[in-house]
Amino acid sequence: MCGHSKWATTKHKKAVVDAKRSKLFAKLIKNIEVAARTGGGDVAGNPTLFDAIQKAKRTSVPIDNINRAVKRGSGQEAGGADYETIMYEGYGPGGIAVLVECLTDNRNRAASDVRVAFTRNGGQMADPGSVSYLFSRRGVVMVPKEGTDEDSVMEAALDAGVEEVNDFGDSFEVLSAATDLVPVRTALQEAGIEYDSADVVFYPSMQVEVDVEGVRKIMRLIDALEDSDDVQNVYANFDASDEVMAELESE
Question: What is the C-alpha to C-alpha distance for residues 182 and 77, in angstroms, rounded to an integer?
């Protein structure tokens, strides 16, 4: 029975991973569609589409799915939905500020999903403006460490507007003003430095340190929010020490 139990547990974990992977693929495809609709299907003239495709490729989204999304978004193929971006604000466990970015074709469904996720996971929704002031729009490029170092990354993008480079263990987080994202990403490319993703995000201006239990609680909320097909991104202003993260990873 031990062997069977182990197999059953492994199968369950794989199903969870596959489900999350499927949702991630769908969200990346949606980003491509919207980028193509907004700026056209020509990758050379649409840096937002370029970055959306790059991110999808890095996450192993099939190229056929990517191409069809570009065609739907640019009107070359029927079937594209009329998505709109909606931001929701709230507080997670411990008063952590949370911003939820939705890309949806059904405003009522998105609002319901977000509200249920907050109320069932120790959080609450907040009025517009009560949380967003704690975040600012910034460009973030994630660079894998393999084959480069912090000084090389900083030097390559310094003239393009890089503001800081943070060490994230197996990758570097390259921060810039939102308007400098494309120049910074381009400078890294021209220097021969590979990157995994380039996005304009809501970056917290201050972070709240949380313990192991605090991370567990806020991650349960984030997982519940991200489980909605309408939720594209979740931003929260919590931070955890290396010791706390090591303890969680060992579980």
Answer: 28
Say how far apart CA 6 and CA 24 lie, in whole Å.
Answer: 27
Question: CA torsion angle for 136, 107, 226, 35 (degrees, to 10)?
Answer: -60
Question: In order along the chain (251 residues), what is the average pLDDT of each group of 10 residues?
Answer: 43 59 89 93 92 91 94 84 91 95 94 97 95 94 90 93 89 93 94 91 91 90 93 91 78 67
- DSSP annotation string for 143-154: EESTT--HHHHH
> What is the torsion angle, in degrees rounded to the nearest 10, for the CA atoms of residue 159, residue 162, residue 163 and residue 167?
-130
Q: Alpha helix locations (H) across the chain? A: 2-39, 47-58, 63-74, 107-120, 150-157, 181-190, 212-226, 242-249
**Phi first, then psi: what are they for 60, rounded to 5°?**
70, 30
217 closest CA partner among 128, 118, 130, 133: 118
Contact residues for 209 (Cβ-Cβ < 8 A; gap 6+):
238, 239, 240, 241
One-letter amino acid for residue 144 of the chain: P
Rounded Cα distance, 160 and 186, in Å: 9
With H, G, I as helix, E, B as strand and everything else as coil, classify residue 161: coil
Q: What is the pLDDT of residue 69?
A: 94
Q: What is the DSSP letter of 241?
A: -
What one-character DSSP code corresponds to residue 95? G
Question: Rounded to whole angstroms, how far apart are CA atoms 40 and 37?
Answer: 6
User: Alpha carbon of 119 to those of 20, 91, 124, 236, 250: distances in Å?
Assistant: 22, 10, 6, 16, 29
Which pTM was predicted?
Answer: 0.84
